[in-house]
Amino acid sequence: MTELQRVSGTVHRTGGGVYVVATADGQHVEASLRGRLKREVRTGGRVVIGDRVEISPSDDTWTIESVEPRQSELVRRGRGGREAKILVANLDRVFVIVALRGPVATTQLIDRLLVLVESSGMHPTLVLNKADLPDAEEVERRLRPLYESVGYGVLVTSAKSEGGLVELHEAMCAGSSAFIGPSGVGKSSLLNAIDPALDLKTGALSKKTGTGRHTTVGSRLIELACGGLVADTPGFGDVGLWAVPPDEVEACFPEFTEARDGCRFRGCAHLNEPDCAVRDGVERSLIAESRYVSYQTLRAEAEENAAR
Ligand code: GDP
Ligand code: ZN
After folding, report:
1. Predicted confidence band of residue 212 (pLDDT cuts 50, 70, 90)
2. What element of type H or E holds 37?
3. What's the gap in Å between 31 CA and the centre of ligand 1?
4. pLDDT reading at 266 higher than 60
5. Which atom of ligand 1 is nearest to the CA of 189?
6. Atom 25, ligand 1: residue with shortest CA distance
7. Ligand with an atom nearest the CA of residue 131
8. Closest ligand 1 atom to the C-alpha of 213?
9. CA-closest candidate to residue 178, choices 252, 126, 229
10. Average pLDDT over residues 46-63
11. Tell me, what's the pLDDT at 214?
């Protein structure tokens, strides 16, 4: 096999040992893994959607010869020290999607989702959906300034009335994105509203009958008509199962980074230590109380997971 026969591409779909690779010239081909890569897969190094790979033709099929180093990995960590699972590679951006109503997202849930993304080394944009529902505005007035003050971009959308969709759509047309959030907040509805050709299943009912996208075994990158890619993976819904190493939790709260230089102790956990600049910031309302409470909760959870 000569190097000339190698073609580079991006993995767009995985599942059942088959990988669909989109090549630079826009073709989609099915490929399997070279034996050496298969062994690496068994030791935890999976090939995932978004991976840039080199493939070569062999008889009537293609083989993945190598995987390029990743720019980013969206990781789902297992409970009780179970191995982390990489869900998507090389994402350009992540949207944390929650609902303003029906039911309203708590700050604890939002913070948990933001921390998950931060722990993968990415800075998410927060999307507050279902803005059309009664009293959504009241919730927006509370949540938007809170998260903007932390430094997050916040988009307010409605898949139903199509409010805020132009901005969301435009942000997704270059490179690859992922939506993460609990089920029922409107992730599929937003994608359908942005790009009706997608025709994704929505609503709890269709999911229960087993025809919804959550029953799919594999993961895929969905191609938007405007050229962007969106990750669709099973694994994004159950946010209760995620964890981050305890001493990495504070780094997932961007507004803590400046304050913590002022803590008396290096390695201050910002819990009961004297002269803690983070707790001081909370007392002086420079850091939101709700964010600090989430920090305490997630840190305690992380300690518990690490001890198991
Ligand atoms: P997913 O599980 O996050 O993909 O959520 P779905 O897209 O399946 O939506 C769950 C339910 O919320 C469905 O009944 C949708 O019709 C509804 N829904 C989604 N977006 C909106 C919205 O912006 N406004 C309102 N009122 N309902 C919405
Ligand atoms: Zn401190």
Report:
1. very low
2. helix 35-42
3. 35
4. yes
5. 7
6. 130
7. 1
8. 4
9. 229
10. 91
11. 45
Which residue bears the tokens 């997630």?
298
pLDDT at residue number 263: 97
Q: What does the alpha-carbon distance between residue 32 and residue 19 come to, in Å, rounded to a whole number? A: 6
Q: Is the CB of 120 under 6 A from ligand 1?
A: no
| Helix (H), strand (E) at residue 257 | helix 256-259
Instruction: Provide the pLDDT confidence category of residue 242 given band limits of 50, 70 and 90.
Output: low
198 lines ligand 1 (CB under 6 A): no
Mean pLDDT for the chain overall: 87
**Which tokens sit at 45?**
């190094």
Q: Where are the alpha helices (DSSP H) in 88-211?
A: 107-119, 136-150, 165-172, 187-194, 204-208
The pocket of ion ligand 2, defined by CB under 5 A, consists of: 263, 268, 270, 276, 278
- Position with higher pLDDT, 254 vs 24: 254
Give me the amino acid identity at 60: D
